[in-house]
Amino acid sequence: xxxxxxxxxxxxxxxxxxxxxxxIGFAWGGWVTxxxxxxxxxxxxxxxxxxxxxxxxxxxxxxxxxxxxxxKEERSYQRDNFVVEAGWVDNVSEKFQSEVADSCxxxxxxxxx
Length: 113
Prior knowledge:
With 113 residues, this protein is mainly alpha-helical. The chain has two domains: 1-31; 45-113. It has helices spanning 7-27, 34-62, 65-73, 79-86, 94-112. It is 76% helix and 0% strand.
């Protein structure tokens, strides 16, 4: 099979152009692999759950002002456990309870200051 001599530079140019397009796409174009896209989706879903359930947790907490005073006395790393034990995040899946409880506790403490 005889390939014309003028075809060789065109083939190398196409290969080089494809490589450059891939590098630019991943570096600056926002392209990601399937694994990265899956991680981004999971993080986005978790963030949405936390944002949706935190106000409900705060509303439950406001119905128990004596518990809020006890929450303020807890150390910052124990506050999420306190919120879970108080039952303010019972309506949240166990997978997201800790994150919602942490966000709820932070919001309650910020509101007290």
